[in-house]
Design a protein that fits this description.
The structure holds two protein chains of two kinds. Chain A is 77% helix and 0% strand. Chain A is an all-alpha fold. Chain A has one domain. In chain A, α2 runs parallel beside α5, α6 runs antiparallel to α9 and α9 packs across α10. The two termini of chain B are 26 Å apart. Chain B is built from ten helices and 14 strands. By secondary structure, chain B is α/β, with parallel strands linked by helices. Classes of the chains: A mainly alpha, B alpha/beta.
Chain lengths: 253, 308
């Protein structure tokens, strides 16, 4: 293992995050606060409790998920796409590193940032609504696993994308709809039966449900199943990254 | 002595079907400065990128210090520094941080004194905290060299190091290469300036259309480069070269209206005066004459033919 390389990549990526602190941290916190103002206070006050939890508090886990998924993807996809675009990736390809060091550095930094953002949003949310976390360890576990998984997914996206458009099209056309339809703002038990069944094909339902369970112990699907889905997604992404570096797909001519 | 880089039967065909390298064999000796010469698109950069691990080869083997560059890439890549032809730099970084990053990436423990030395030797120390995007093109190239040197490589690839740089930087670069050689670093530089290879390289390899056509000591190659040709445009065509002129090894061309004479500018007697006198005696008159340096290609072809 080349730990110096992991440290070099991680440090550079974290420095990049600090350079763009407004875009990286202030922006997601502001947008989430707006969600709270609109859905929590303005509309939420007219919505009854869901499973014994006030609507404002109910959407907190979903909003955190929404933010860390989009932030993980955009952060890590950009981190690897930009060197590809500017040509500086030559150095990474010619360095004595394997995919393991590269992933630990880039994905580790992106996931760290997401976890920080998740924490800040949670803190921000606590100003608006009363939040109880029933299972703090499970909550942190989900937060970390999902940050890592989606950072890995973003990393794959950044390698795959051969233009700026592709970089933004996947988060907008795939991830955002799945997240909004995945129970960010509602419990899927509120849906007609057909849509409930259909929702179970949306992997993000499992992630949000599991994360929400850690807060309020109510879930759309069993917690074990949620955890399994997260780990499964993580494993698939790891496999894909390994394959990319082994074959040089879209990295080495 | 075992060559520091050994390339055997290396081929590369790109996805589009372009054959960039056709069965290349090449040995680079430890501590030498090797000039890789060839026109654009000859395969120079492809070869370097394969050795460094940026491009995957189609077939063949590359060993660095005896290690295979595929299966033991950690041992090979860690020893190599690469300064690419283009100027891909971390726009928003500073030279100092960029060098620190390179050193870490290549698995070396931090050594601020070394990075300071490298930046000072390339006149970058006073710019160490300036964002790279604010630097001039020449400075960016220096940053790339500094990055490659910051991890203390034994082997340094310089891909077209002086393409588009001013005279001052070119001289600095040449001095830097000499200093590196004195410290035992093997340097491989590509160029299409024959003068640059002549100034710096111990040996020169010529590559064209994906094939290494000759590898020669610089001195010997330069002797070939001293050759020129004199072309005489005759007033009236002749059918054969008169017997009195056989000693000059003339070539008759263009339907008998052109005579070509080869001579060596570096020899004591070029033989031009004697030839012109002999032509006059033979009654051959000419309208025009011109001399030209043998082109690189002609020299290379000549060398290849001689070796066969």
């Amino acid at each position: 293992m080349n730990w110096y390389a992991v440290k070099a990549i991680y440090r550079t990526e974290m420095a990049r995050m600090m350079r763009t602190v407004v875009q990286s941290i202030v922006a997601p916190v502001l947008s989430t606060s707006l969600y709270f103002v609109i859905f929590g206070a303005a509309i939420g006050s007219r919505i009854t409790e869901i499973d014994g939890v006030s609507y404002g508090a109910f959407i907190v886990p979903g909003l955190i998920m929404l933010s860390i998924m989009t932030e993980s993807i955009s952060n890590s996809s950009f981190a690897i796409y930009f060197p590809k675009f500017s040509g500086t990736i030559f150095e990474l390809l010619s360095a004595p590193v394997s995919w393991v060091e590269v992933v630990l550095g880039y994905v580790g930094a992106a996931a760290t940032k997401s976890v920080i953002i998740g924490g800040i949003i949670l803190a921000t949310a606590s100003f608006f609504v009363e939040i109880n976390v029933a299972h703090p360890l499970i909550m942190v576990l989900f937060l970390v696993l999902i940050s890592v998984s989606f950072s890995l997914f973003g990393f794959i996206l950044g390698i795959w994308a051969d233009g700026w458009e592709k970089l933004t099209i996947v988060p907008i056309l795939v991830i955002m709809p799945l997240t909004f339809l995945g129970g960010t703002f509602y419990s899927i038990s509120m849906l007609p039966e057909f849509w409930q069944k259909l929702s179970l094909f949306n992997p993000i339902v499992y992630l949000i449900s599991g994360f929400r369970w850690a807060f309020y112990e109510n879930a759309d699907v069993a917690i074990g199943l949620s955890l399994g889905m997260v780990i499964g997604f993580l494993a698939i992404c790891l496999g894909v990254v390994r394959w990319i570096f082994k074959t040089g797909y879209r990295l080495r001519a | 002595m075992q060559p520091v880089i050994r390339i055997r039967d290396l081929t590369k065909t790109y996805a589009g079907g372009f054959e960039a390298l056709k069965s290349v064999d090449l040995d680079i000796d430890k501590g030498e400065i090797f000039g890789l010469l060839g026109p654009n698109g000859a395969g120079k950069t492809t070869m370097i990128n394969i050795v460094c691990g940026i491009v995957t080869k189609t077939s063949g083997t590359v060993t660095v210090n005896g290690y295979d560059n595929d299966t033991e890439y950690r041992k090979t890549r860690g020893r190599i520094g690469l300064v690419p032809q283009e100027l891909p730099t971390e726009t928003f970084e500073t030279p100092y941080n960029a060098c620190r990053f390179s050193r870490g990436l290549f698995g070396k423990p931090p050594r601020p004194d070394h990075i300071e030395k490298v930046l000072k030797s390339l006149s970058l120390w006073d710019k160490k905290d300036t964002k790279i995007m604010m630097l001039s093109g020449g400075m960016k190239r220096r940053v790339l060299i500094a990055k490659a040197l910051s991890h203390e490589p034994d082997i340094l690839f310089l891909d077209e190091p002086t393409a588009g740089v001013d005279v001052e930087l070119r001289q600095d670069m040449w001095n830097a290469v000499q200093t590196l050689r004195e410290s035992g670093v093997t340097v491989i530089l590509t160029t299409h300036y024959i003068e640059e290879a002549e100034q710096l390289a111990d040996r020169i390899g010529v590559i064209n259309h994906g094939e290494v056509i000759v590898v020669e000591e610089t001195n010997r190659l330069m002797r070939e480069l001293g050759k020129k040709e004199l072309v005489l445009h005759l007033a009236s065509p002749i059918e054969a070269i008169p017997s009195g002129l056989h000693g000059y090894h003339l070539e008759l061309g263009a339907g008998g209206s052109e005579l070509t004479y080869h001579y060596d500018t570096k020899s004591e007697h070029t033989g031009i005066t004697a030839l012109l006198g002999a032509l006059h005696e033979a009654g051959i008159r000419f309208n025009d004459l011109h001399t030209s340096q043998s082109s690189l290609e002609e020299i290379f072809v000549g060398l290849v033919n001689k070796e066969r």
